[in-house]
Specification:
Elements: H1 2-13, H2 27-46, H3 49-79, H4 83-92
Length: 100
């Protein structure tokens, strides 16, 4: 996270478009300019409200699907004991975060 925040502050300072390639720039400098422009584009996408809403929606869907799957595993493991089912449930929810 520190690395991301550090890069984010660096990218805010360099918000200008890519300069046209010149003969004085090395390939490393050209690559660095392309990477900075891509980072700026990604950061602007991440800062949009729509993106955060989409991620929150995916989180809710994923958690509800996982909780339903864990309930099915628990129900199936009570009707017939299969050690791999209880092992799978333990691995998917090792700290009982989704079960609670």
């Amino acid at each position: 996270l520190h690395r991301f925040a550090h890069n984010f502050h660096d990218m805010q300072a360099t918000d200008e478009p890519l300069p046209p390639p010149s003969s004085q720039q090395t390939p490393a400098e050209l690559r660095l300019a392309r990477v900075r422009q891509k980072n700026n584009t990604y950061l602007s996408l991440l800062s949009q409200r729509h993106y955060s809403k989409m991620i929150a929606k995916f989180k809710v869907i994923f958690e509800s699907q996982l909780q339903g799957f864990l309930r099915q595993i628990a129900q199936e493991s009570t009707t017939r004991y299969e050690h791999f089912l209880s092992n799978l449930a333990t691995r998917l929810d090792y700290n009982d975060y989704y079960s609670s």
